[in-house]
Design a protein that fits this description.
Distance between the termini: 98 Å
Oligomer: single chain
Shape: rod-shaped
Strand content: 5-15%
Helix content: 40-55%
Order of helices and strands: HEEEHH
Largest sheet: 3 strands, antiparallel
Length: about 110
């Protein structure tokens, strides 16, 4: 079939089919992205709220606390657990040292006296 025998209408129908397929593909991409975004949002909502204050323990679970940290301190060890503001203040008052990096005593307004 020569170019002269292909009608303008046939070319337009071909173009329409190509564009329809492109649109369907784009719609699939959009749907997949919307699903990823919804999953990301669910994951963020499911995450537990990080504690405001941490108490780091020694090597044994029953050992004395080593440091008081601000929640999210980069230097908090794996043996750190969340505590309330009052518990963090009490630990400082009982002589548990504040982390020298995140300075929870300053954040808490604790004055050693």
């Amino acid at each position: 079939m020569s170019d002269a025998n292909v009608s303008r209408l046939a070319l337009l129908r071909f173009l329409e089919e190509v564009q329809r397929r492109d649109l369907e593909r784009t719609q699939r991409w959009i749907a997949a992205e919307e699903q990823r975004e919804a999953e990301r949002q669910r994951g963020m909502q499911a995450r537990l709220h990080a504690p405001d204050w941490l108490l780091e323990r020694g090597l044994n679970a029953n050992s004395a606390p080593v440091y008081v940290h601000v929640g999210g301190c980069w230097n908090a060890g794996k043996r750190s657990g969340g505590v309330t503001r009052d518990q963090a203040l009490r630990a400082l008052a009982e002589g548990v040292p504040p982390c020298p990096h995140c300075r929870p005593d300053t954040e808490l307004g604790y004055v050693d006296g």
